[in-house]
């Protein structure tokens, strides 16, 4: 044993001696000799690597004696390799040659804000998304950005999730991927559950709050989310990203790319699976996705073919938690049927061209197609045959009018079209002009099937008890320009015309005939000024957006009483500053609505609740966000928003069951709060980096009281909450790997009991004084203290 220990010590001593060589060097541009910051240096076969600092310098240490191949790479430059023999005492200088490729950033530039655009925005890059991405959905990853409130049906951030920005939900938030519309054409929503692990294939995302700049698809009635998918990598790579967490949450991601082949072609691919039991009982998720991108990269053009798909099965937790179970049974789930699941798959295909024409023009054009199909299955206890347009069943002398059913409600839709833009920049750089637009068609089928009945009667499996179809054409054209009036002072204009034709016909799920057609033409002007002075940019703008009603507004209302379109007038004014270690943004906004659509409690002729226009409402607030680097180890950041969100006047309808013949009673309210619009939303982030490889982050989130309806009734509200999360990240470059990253995220570290989402309804019943008002509140509780642990290997 003694000899064994002596041998081991001798071996380790010799190994250490062979691993103490180092080389120093610098990476510069070949033509200008300017240092290249962030260039990657790799000693092949040793597991050792480095990144150049602000002066282009690097140090590679703990290298073995002998020959070693050093490889240097930097985006936009040709990779360089050199073999040296260690020990090596001289300072290396690597001169990289620039490769003239057209930037892929132009693919999204037509629908994005730049530093001179007079609107309020924040861009989150790939590195920041990667730190947060441990398998949770996009809304959870964006939770700490300004004015954002996110929520999860299953309570743990996997499965059905949602996001609100400035109090506006996803149906009022425009989303695009590479400029291509993502929102559902009929509901205007985005179902992130259909895109599991999409963040792993995102290069960056820009959040524009308010109307923002003209974009494709649904109106930006509160904000917009503009995603750009992965851009080219020059070197071949492979990554394995696995994770595990509370509630039996697992994530498996494999990602690889060829790098640049023949100096012209590149292919990237990803395959992902995420599973979770969920915080709520039985609220499991089984999510699978893939992403493939192939591109041709020329000196003056880029052609990319992108395909990605997501398939989900989630157990339903849509019902929420009754108020009386909040204290003792927060994981309760109304549903018990073992296949009460949602099942959906969505495939996306994009063919994108971008090219440079002469020295002043760039063009972008894309064709796209999305195919979605799926259903949710429900067990229905003691439903009437009449609800399925079926006759009663006669058995002998007994007439049976109801039984138990299992049904599936289907969506089967196609969405396709094109978008394009042309960008002109004058020789002197003073004029930046974009002409763009697109045309898209949605063709969607809605139908319901009976797959089982306890007493079948005159039914067959997969009988359709309703079936309808909708076609929606959406066209827009816009022209936007930024002109530098004098040094630092820019004027911005943006004019968009959007046309919509929407037709639908067939039998709705409530067995009513829904045949109708509506057409709209909207004019959405925007203009403003920006002024750059030193490291600050001041801006102010006025923008208009118009939004058509959603599908349910058409199908639930009598066609002769379809609600009016909504209109938004948006004022933004603020300042952006970057000064050394301190960056900040401060802005004021006013969003004045005409004919905003809200739920009032009014019902249609078959008892479904409908939305109505309210003449006047507004959102107004101040948003502050910034970051300050105290030292090399400590960085403080955060954001806070203070707002007022009011409806001038509206009438509430409450069901009255205290009388013999059902009726609704009305109540009029003035100057009330808009539902789900907290007056205060804030986040704080503290980062401590004791070493180059280790980072510790503390996240805090505060959300003020949210009302469940528009009556400002505290008894129908969500309590304010304050949560804290801890993230520990460690990265290294071990031998045989390009990199190893470990991320531990502990959510809700103080076990805060909170609910960021819910719903309410009230009704009168007979009582001691004639009648009694009953209010039922339902909540979506989020998990207490829980964790996610991720391990990523880079090859």
Automatic annotation (TrEMBL):
Location comes to: Cell outer membrane
Coiled coil location: none
**Source species, please?**
Algoriphagus formosus
Keywords, sorted A to Z? Cell outer membrane, Ion transport, Iron, Iron transport, Membrane, Receptor, Signal, Transmembrane, Transmembrane beta strand, Transport
- GO terms of molecular function: siderophore uptake transmembrane transporter activity
Q: Which GO terms describe its cellular component?
A: cell outer membrane
Pfam families in UniProt: CarbopepD_reg_2, OMP_b-brl_3, Plug
Domain (Outer membrane protein beta-barrel): give its ranges.
564-752
Topology versus the membrane, per the UniProt entry? Multi-pass membrane protein
Family according to the record: Belongs to the TonB-dependent receptor family.
PROSITE patterns to which the protein is assigned, alphabetical: TONB_DEPENDENT_REC_3
Endpoints of the signal sequence: 1-19
Name it. Answer: TonB-dependent receptor
Iron among the record's keywords?
A: yes
Every copy of the TonB-dependent receptor plug domain together lies at: 115-222
Using the UniProt record, give the first listed, main subcellular location. Answer: membrane
């Amino acid at each position: 044993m003694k000899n064994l220990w002596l041998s081991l010590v001798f071996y380790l001593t010799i190994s250490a001696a062979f691993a103490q060589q180092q080389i120093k060097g610098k990476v510069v541009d070949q033509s200008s000799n300017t240092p290249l910051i962030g260039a990657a240096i790799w000693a092949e076969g040793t597991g050792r690597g480095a990144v150049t600092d602000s002066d282009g310098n690097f140090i590679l240490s703990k290298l073995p004696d002998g020959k070693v191949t050093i490889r240097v790479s930097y985006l936009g430059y040709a990779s360089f390799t050199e073999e040296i023999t260690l020990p090596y005492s001289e300072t290396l200088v690597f001169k990289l040659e620039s490769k003239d490729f057209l930037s892929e950033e132009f693919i999204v530039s037509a629908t994005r804000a730049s530093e001179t655009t007079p609107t309020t925005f924040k861009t989150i890059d790939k590195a920041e998304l990667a730190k947060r991405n441990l398998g949770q959905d996009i809304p959870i990853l964006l939770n700490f950005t300004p004015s954002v409130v996110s929520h999860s049906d299953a309570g743990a951030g996997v499965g059905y999730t949602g996001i609100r920005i400035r109090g506006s939900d996803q149906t009022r938030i425009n989303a695009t991927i590479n400029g291509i519309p993502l929102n559902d054409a009929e509901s205007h929503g985005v179902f992130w559950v259909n895109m599991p692990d999409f963040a792993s294939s995102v290069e960056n995302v820009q959040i524009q709050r308010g109307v923002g700049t003209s974009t494709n698809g649904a109106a930006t009635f509160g904000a917009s989310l503009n995603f750009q998918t992965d851009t080219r990598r020059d070197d071949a790579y492979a990554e394995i990203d696995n994770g595990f967490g509370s509630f039996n949450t697992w994530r498996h991601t494999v990602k690889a790319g060829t790098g640049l082949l023949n100096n012209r072609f590149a292919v990237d691919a990803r395959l992902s699976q995420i599973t979770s039991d969920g915080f709520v009982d039985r609220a499991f998720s089984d999510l699978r996705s893939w992403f493939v991108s192939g591109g041709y990269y020329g000196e003056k053009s880029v052609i990319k073919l992108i395909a990605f798909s997501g398939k989900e099965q989630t157990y339903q937790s849509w019902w929420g938690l009754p108020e009386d179970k909040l204290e003792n049974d927060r994981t309760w789930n109304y549903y018990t049927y073992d296949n009460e699941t949602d099942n959906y798959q969505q495939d996306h295909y994009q063919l994108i061209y971008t090219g440079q024409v002469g020295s002043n023009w760039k063009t972008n054009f894309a064709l796209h197609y999305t195919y979605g199909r799926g259903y949710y299955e429900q067990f229905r206890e003691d439903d009437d045959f009449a609800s399925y347009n079926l006759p009663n069943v006669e058995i002998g002398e007994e007439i049976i009018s109801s039984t138990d059913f299992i049904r599936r409600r289907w969506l089967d839709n196609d969405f396709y079209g094109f978008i394009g833009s042309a960008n002109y920049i004058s020789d002197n750089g003073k004029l930046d002009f974009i002409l763009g637009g697109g045309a898209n068609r949605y063709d969607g089928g809605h139908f319901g099937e009976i797959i089982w009945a306890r007493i079948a009667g005159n039914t067959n499996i997969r009988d359709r008890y309703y079936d309808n179809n909708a076609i929606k054409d959406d066209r827009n054209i816009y022209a936007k320009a930024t002109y530098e009036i004098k040094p630092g002072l820019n004027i911005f204009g943006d004019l968009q015309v959007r046309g919509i034709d929407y037709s639908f016909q067939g039998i709705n799920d409530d067995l009513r005939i829904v045949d109708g057609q509506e057409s709209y033409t909207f004019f959405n002007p925007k203009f403003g000024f920006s002024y750059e002075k030193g490291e600050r940019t001041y801006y102010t703008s006025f923008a208009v957006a118009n939004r058509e009603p959603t599908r349910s507004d058409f199908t639930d209302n009598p066609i002769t009483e379809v609600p009016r379109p909504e209109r938004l007038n948006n004022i933004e004014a603020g300042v952006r500053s970057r000064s050394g270690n301190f960056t900040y943004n401060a802005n004021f906004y006013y969003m004045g609505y005409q004919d905003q659509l809200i739920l009032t409690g009014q019902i249609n002729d078959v008892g479904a609740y409908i939305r109505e226009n309210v003449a006047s409402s507004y959102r107004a607030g101040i948003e502050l966000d910034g970051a300050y680097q105290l030292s090399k180890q400590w960085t403080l950041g955060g954001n806070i928003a203070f707002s007022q969100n009011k409806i001038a006047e509206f009438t509430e309808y409450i069901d009255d069951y205290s009388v013999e013949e059902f009726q609704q009673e009305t109540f009029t309210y003035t100057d009330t709060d808009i539902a789900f619009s907290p007056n205060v939303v804030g986040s704080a982030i503290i980062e401590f980096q004791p070493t180059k490889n280790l980072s510790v982050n503390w996240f805090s989130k505060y959300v003020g009281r949210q009302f469940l309806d528009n009556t400002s009734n505290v008894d129908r509200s969500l309590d304010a909450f304050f949560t804290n999360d801890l993230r520990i990240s460690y990265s290294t470059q071990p031998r045989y790997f390009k990199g190893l990253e470990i991320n531990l995220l502990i959510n809700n570290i103080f076990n805060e009991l909170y609910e960021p989402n819910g719903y309410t309804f009230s009704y009168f019943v007979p009582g001691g004084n004639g009648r009694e008002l009953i209010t039922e509140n339902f909540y979506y509780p989020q998990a207490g203290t829980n964790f996610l642990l991720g391990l990523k290997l880079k090859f």
